[in-house]
Design a protein that fits this description.
18 helices
Length: 452
């Protein structure tokens, strides 16, 4: 009897201790000791600013315009669009580790972020000249603007571990993603208002779509200003005054040589490559699918993307808390299951209602999975090499961004424009990602990161 009593007491004590630990963790501040809420807001505002580019240019407006007006609905049109994006992502993939390591060596994340922002804003504004007969120019500008967008995305992500406590990165990352989706909503809403007005005046798409590019570029530039005014660069230079490029590449090579020490981060980055392949294809081709497979008009497509951005913002914000509560791996596993359900529903949808449900599932999962992935990298990356390791994360995402949309484009080309077959194929990427994720151990990975 005494043994049974002692065993029961030990179990109760263990449960109590676990509850106390969870309560203490929940009470811990989400921000670092020297971080103020205004600075986190300024960091989030960059997500708010740059989301207009992906929402308007890549997802909702310009992609479908490219296929219909610039490429003339040729059988290779979707493939050409995905090929241009793939080229830009390949360039990012090749340069991201160097840019990240160079940023660490110089303590220059913010400086490089300003350069990438200016490049994306300028490239987007120059799409004003895109129209029938400008295929080569348009493809060049898409490659240019998307390269600078992706580079800036890597750099802003590297600030996250400097701002948030390690146990609250999911929450703070979710704040950024949710604010970002609101930025996408604003840009898309303003463009919708402009397009509606333009159509009422009889202005053709060859004029109002380029006009919406100027609107998007202007909003990006204005909304990013708080980031550069209030976000601090906390890093210190880590390289000698000479040979900085060699030192930066040396850090990258060292990371690759020491890959076994970061086995869980390495495995998660492999997981990222697969599940992000599906996500990036959805982002790049949502409007094309809506118009070509579901026969949506431009206005219907924009309204759909507006609503999906709301659900994505809700998913990013709410799931950050869910992630901190149930654990990183369980949270992202849940989102991958949701993605699998979404592609099956979208591929089989015959009516508008079913497609709307699938699209909003995609929105919830997109916000959740993007926020969760960034937070996991923040936990598994060594604290003094954040720019470098977020560069590797960017490399994984951009690799996914190459073969995800490109495989979709190839499917539509091979199957004579059958977008339903192409979207169902995306489900394979989420299944593979889910299988790889099962081997990631967050506790072991965090310990390896702290050991450096």
């Amino acid at each position: 009897m005494a043994g049974t009593y002692n065993k029961a007491l030990a179990i109760k004590t263990d449960v109590y201790n676990r509850r106390q630990t969870m309560t203490a963790a929940a009470r811990r501040p989400a921000l670092g000791a020297d971080v103020r809420l205004k600075e986190v807001w300024a960091w989030s505002m960059y997500d708010f600013a740059n989301s207009g580019y992906t929402t308007v240019v890549i997802t909702a407006v310009f992609s479908a315009y490219f296929v219909s007006a610039i490429a003339g609905k040729a059988v290779w049109a979707t493939f050409a669009w995905t090929a241009a994006l793939s080229v830009s992502y390949a360039l990012i993939m090749l340069t991201a580790p160097l840019v990240g390591a160079w940023a660490d060596a110089h303590a220059a994340k913010k400086r490089l972020l300003a350069i990438s922002t200016a490049g994306c804003v300028a490239g987007t504004a120059l799409l004003w000249f895109a129209g029938p007969g400008t295929l080569v120019l348009t493809l060049f500008l898409i490659v240019l603007s998307n390269y600078f967008f992706g580079t800036g995305e890597n750099l802003i992500a590297a600030f996250l571990p400097e701002l948030a406590d390690s146990e609250a990165m999911g929450r703070v990352s979710g704040w950024g993603w949710s604010v970002g989706y609101l930025g996408g909503l604003l840009s898309l809403g303003v463009c919708l208002a402009y397009i509606t007005w333009a159509q009422a005046q009889g202005i053709p798409a060859t004029q109002f779509v380029p006009g919406s590019m100027l609107i998007t570029a202007g909003l990006f530039a204005i909304a990013s200003l708080p980031t550069f005014l209030f976000l601090r660069e906390r890093a210190r230079p880590q390289a000698p005054a000479t040979g900085l490029v060699d030192a930066a590449w040396g850090r990258v090579l060292q990371t690759l040589r020491e890959a076994k020490r970061y086995r869980d981060l390495r495995r998660f980055l492999l997981c990222v490559v697969f599940y992000q392949a599906g996500i990036q294809a959805v982002i790049a081709l949502a409007a094309i699918y809506a118009q070509e497979a579901m026969k949506f008009t431009t206005q219907q497509t924009i309204v759909l993307i507006l609503v999906v951005n709301v659900t994505a913002a809700v998913g990013a914000f709410a799931f950050g808390y869910v992630q901190d509560a149930i654990g990183h791996i369980r949270a992202i596993s849940l989102t991958l299951v949701g993605w699998i359900v979404m592609v099956l529903m979208a591929g089989l949808a015959e009516g508008v209602g079913a497609f709307w449900i699938a699209a909003n599932i995609a929105g919830l999962c997109m916000g959740a999975s993007q926020a969760a992935g960034r937070a996991i990298v923040g936990v598994l990356a060594p604290p003094d090499r954040l720019g470098e390791f977020f560069g590797l994360w960017g490399l994984a995402v951009k690799l996914a961004s190459i073969f995800g949309p490109l495989s979709y484009g190839l499917m539509t080309w091979v199957f004579a424009g059958n977008h339903r077959v192409a979207i169902v194929v995306l489900g394979v990427y989420f299944i593979i990602g889910l299988a790889i994720l099962r081997g990631v151990d967050m506790a072991r990975g965090r310990a390896a990161a702290l050991l450096g």
